[in-house]
Structure formats: structure tokens, C-alpha cells
Design brief:
With 353 residues, the protein is of the alpha/beta class. Helices cover 39% and strands 23% of the residues.
Length: 353
């Protein structure tokens, strides 16, 4: 593609496995075999010109800044509009952030999750609230202009007062992007199997509190869980919601060609073995029919302020959802209201059923 393609790189290593995490990750440090396999897979992918780059996990910064400097230097980032990396607040110091910037990253996402020590312990996080604050300040001192932090709400025992504390603390750090995720009970995780979380009505109130607080502070609520200052939206994630093609590298990574979705094996050992044989480490794929593509466009569009083209929607259902206050019309598109974002998945079912 002339404008370039997205590239997602998954690093399945972390300092500790959090109690809520359903992603393919495990405690430990990446070894030389994994580092080489990842380089080899990206070479097999031959991604060409990169439009957006996102390194996620796990904790990608455990790979070390020298690895990222070498890898990014091997890619065509001449037209890259965003190169992002995720980190845990306990991993890097100020020098590490500066080195990531020199390697080629211009956006960093810091997994804060909460500023409450009790919540951090319950979630299984290894950092403290103070380390979270220091991480943001170190990222700024290291030269990052585009800093995002993640927060989680809907925890058992969490009330509106301590969630408001998290939001206000986040605003005091003066980052330009904040992601606020409702706790998901993932099967096979400690927290997911325990089935413990805030009641649905309280989580809904927390969602609306988040919207009111952050939009009141000048943030744009551009996706169900994401808020940004103007121009600081995650360009890589927007590419997902716009159904742009992207490559996926690393164990469990997904990719999308425009007509096909594929995913890699989540088994790190098998991943290394397959790549060493010169094979792409695929474990499955799915070809997208035109009807599925329309459903995806509706489902993804309803999660964003960009919305969905009315031309592909049933008019009667659209009008009913507008009357219910869940959609609003914007010329030839409709987009969810703040209350509508709470019901994005349900609206997608109604509009595609």
C-alpha cells in the first residue's frame, strides 16, 4: 500500500501475571531465541512501508532499548505517523524512556490501572502509585510528547469516590490520552474465575462519570474506552476501528489483510520452532465475506465518535435508537451518544440482526 500498513508486535513477557489479564503473556524475561525469532518473523512478513507501529504485550520494554533500536532501524518508517510502545511503570527509568525515543518510538502507553495501593495489590500489579506518577514524569523528561495512561474501573469494593480520585489524579499528571477500561472477567484468570466485580449499575455510573470528568477537562471521547486531547488519538487503534490492513507479529498476534484475518500460535516455544523452520507461525485464519465486512463496519463504528454510514443501516431501527437517545445523526452518518456507547454491542446486534 502506498501509504503504508500497520504493524502490531506482541511481546508475551511481563514482570508478573496480573489477576485479570487474559492476554497471551507470562512472567519472565525474553531470551535470545525469542528475540531472533521475532526478527525473523518480521523479515518473513516483509511489511514494507509502515504507517503505524504498536508494540504491546505483556511488557514490550522488557526486550530492552537496544533490541528496539535495532528492530526499528530495520523497518521502513519513513512515512510512519505513529510508533507506540506499552510499558509497566516498574520497568523503566528516565534514561530508558529517552532511549526508547531515540530508538524511534514517539508514543508511549503506561499501564497505571489505578492510583490506589489496595486496588493495585488486588489486580496483581507489581508497581506502586508513586511509581506510576514517576513513570509519567520520566516519560516527559525523556522527551515523549504523546503519553497515554490506562485505568481500570468496575472493581469489587470500588466506589464512585475512589474512582473519581483515580480520574482526578490522572488529570493532574497532564497526559494527553487516557484509556479507561471496565474490568472484564476473563475465563482462566484468577479474577475472572472468582467472578468478582462491581455491580452493572455502578459500572455504568462510573462510565458516565468518566465521560463527564474527562470531556469537562477538554478530552475528546472518541471511542468507548478512550479519551484524547485533540490530535492525540491513538492512530494505530483507529486503524483497527476503520478496518485498515495490518500485520501481526509475535505469539498470539493477529493480522488483517482487508479480506482475511489471521492469528499466530500463542505458544512461545511452538512460535520459535515454526519461525526457525522458515514458516509464518500461523494457527488459524478466516476469510471475511462482504456481509461480514458490513457487520464489522457497524460493530466497530458504533464504538467510535466517527460513527457509521446510514446507507448500510436499517432506517427504522436507526430512528428508534435516535428517539431512545442512544444514537445521533451527523449528516450521512450516525454516531453513539455517551449513553449509547454503553450499549454499543447491543446496538450492533439490533442493527445487524
Amino acid at each position: 500500500m502506498a501509504e503504508g500498513i500497520g504493524l502490531y508486535i506482541h511481546i508475551p513477557f511481563c514482570l508478573a501475571k496480573c489477576g485479570y489479564c487474559g492476554f497471551a503473556s507470562s512472567p519472565g524475561l525474553p531470551g535470545p531465541e525469542f528475540r531472533q525469532a521475532l526478527k525473523n518473523e518480521i523479515r518473513l512478513l516483509s511489511p514494507g512501508r509502515i504507517r503505524t507501529l504498536h508494540a504491546g504485550g505483556g511488557t514490550p520494554t522488557l526486550m530492552g532499548t537496544a533490541f528496539w533500536r535495532e528492530l526499528l532501524a530495520s523497518l521502513d518508517l519513513s512515512h510512519c505517523i505513529e510508533a507506540a510502545v506499552e510499558t509497566n511503570p516498574a520497568v523503566l527509568g528516565e534514561e530508558g524512556y529517552a532511549e526508547l525515543g531515540k530508538a524511534g518510538f514517539d508514543r508511549i502507553s503506561i499501564g497505571v490501572q489505578s492510583f490506589s495501593e489496595d486496588n493495585l495489590r488486588w489486580l496483581g500489579r507489581v508497581h506502586t502509585s508513586r511509581q506510576a506518577e514517576e513513570a509519567v514524569e520520566s516519560a516527559k523528561a525523556g522527551g515523549f510528547k504523546n503519553i497515554s495512561i490506562d485505568l481500570i474501573y468496575g472493581l469489587p469494593g470500588q466506589n464512585m469516590e475512589n474512582w473519581s480520585f483515580d480520574l482526578e489524579k490522572a488529570l493532574q499528571l497532564e497526559t494527553d490520552h487516557i484509556s479507561c477500561y471496565e474490568l472484564t472477567l476473563e475465563p482462566g484468570t484468577r479474577i475472572g474465575d472468582a467472578g468478582s466485580r462491581a455491580i452493572e449499575s455502578l459500572s455504568a455510573d462510573m462510565f458516565m462519570k468518566t465521560h463527564d470528568t474527562l470531556t469537562g477537562a477538554g478530552f475528546h471521547h472518541y471511542e468507548v474506552s478512550n479519551y484524547a486531547r485533540p490530535g492525540q488519538e491513538s492512530k494505530h487503534n483507529q486503524a483497527y476501528w476503520e478496518r485498515r490492513p495490518y500485520h501481526g507479529a509475535g505469539p498470539s498476534a493477529h493480522g488483517f489483510t482487508g479480506t482475511e484475518r489471521y492469528w499466530n500460535t500463542p505458544d512461545t516455544g511452538l512460535y520459535i520452532e515454526q519461525v526457525n523452520r522458515g514458516n509464518l507461525p500461523r494457527s488459524g485464519n478466516e476469510f471475511i465475506t462482504p456481509a461480514q465486512a458490513v457487520r464489522e463496519e457497524i460493530m466497530l463504528g458504533l464504538r467510535t465518535s466517527r460513527g457509521v454510514r446510514t446507507a448500510i443501516l436499517p432506517e427504522k431501527t436507526v430512528n428508534r435508537l435516535i428517539e431512545a437517545g442512544r444514537l445521533k445523526r451527523n449528516g450521512e452518518t450516525v454516531s453513539p451518544t455517551p449513553e449509547g456507547m454503553l450499549w454499543a454491542d447491543g446496538m450492533a446486534c439490533e442493527l445487524t440482526g
